Amino acid sequence: METLLDVEDLWVKFPSRHGVFDAVRGVSFTLGRERLGIVGESGSGKSMTGRAILRLIRPPGIVEAKQISLHGDDLMKKSEKEMRAVRGKRISMVMQDPKFSLNPVMSIGNQIIEAYRQHNKVSHADAYAKSLEMLEAVSIRDPERVMRAYPHEMSGGMGQRIMIAMMLIPNPEILIADEPTSALDVSVQRQVLDIMDKLVKTRGMGLIFISHDLNLVADFCDRVLIMYAGRIVEICEADKLHEAKHPYTRGLLNSLPRLDAPRDHLEVLKRDPAWSEAPSVSGRI
Question: Would you write out the chain's pLDDT as a tens digit for each of its 285 residues?
Fold first, then answer.
């Protein structure tokens, strides 16, 4: 499998009154043209890992890594100006809640056009036509009406589709999706996932899918990294996630309700301090 992204020994640190807090600790993995899931509880370091790849951690936060390599090009060695050419064009990130990612005082059309023209020297008319095409690709009906609308006029599902269209319009090689379906109802979740799956397959992209929903990731992804306290504790093939061995992964799975195995009481996850001290498992291929 071709390697698009190679992350080796990634650390994200934040100074505090009580010393340096390590939010991500020694994470290593590779990404090919696949759907890679990253799962774990809130605070496990999933989103920080995604943001660190794009160097979106601002001071006083510190990002350290042996390498974050995109096709052999080490992003850690790039200046902020050089990173602006990477963000969006080569790697895009869909944030968790579109209501906080879309500009409330700009029309949706102008925001998508701006995202496209940022990396492509085209006329406004060409950018408008491309924006309509992308809205249609994410299954939005009447895209011309949506182009004129403002974010507050859109539902959560529509907002998420618009964000996906905006992030994919520059045709990046990698898409990082940070819990893109967490605020959506189940029926809309499936539609958004189908759209992302289709676009990833047709474009041959790599997808990093960050989520806390193990069942969703097991159904949607190819490989899964399980994170706990900033470290990777286990790596599984997605279709074998329910056969995971690590007690943390087992605890997460057992705390979920299942229609095929109803129980009177769900288990409470019992943590072992040793989990956070063990070396991070490498997800590099």
Answer: 689 999 999 999 999 998 999 999 999 999 999 999 999 988 899 999 999 999 999 999 999 999 999 998 999 999 999 999 899 889 999 887 766 788 999 999 999 999 899 888 899 999 999 999 989 888 888 999 999 999 999 887 788 889 888 888 888 999 999 988 776 777 777 877 888 888 788 888 999 999 988 888 998 999 999 999 999 999 999 999 988 999 999 988 888 777 777 777 877 888 888 888 888 898 887
Beta strands 223-228; 206-211: pairing state = unpaired
Q: Are strands 19-31 and 223-228 parallel, antiparallel or unpaired?
A: unpaired
Give the residue among 152, 117, 149, 151 at the shortest CA–CA distance from 131: 117
Q: What are phi and psi of 242, to 5 degrees?
A: -75, -5
C-alpha distances (whole Å) from 252 to each of 23, 39, 41, 135, 246 are 20, 10, 9, 36, 10
CA distance 151 to 12: 32
Instruction: Kindly report the pTM of this predicted structure.
Output: 0.90
Q: How many CB atoms lie within 10 A of CB 125?
A: 8
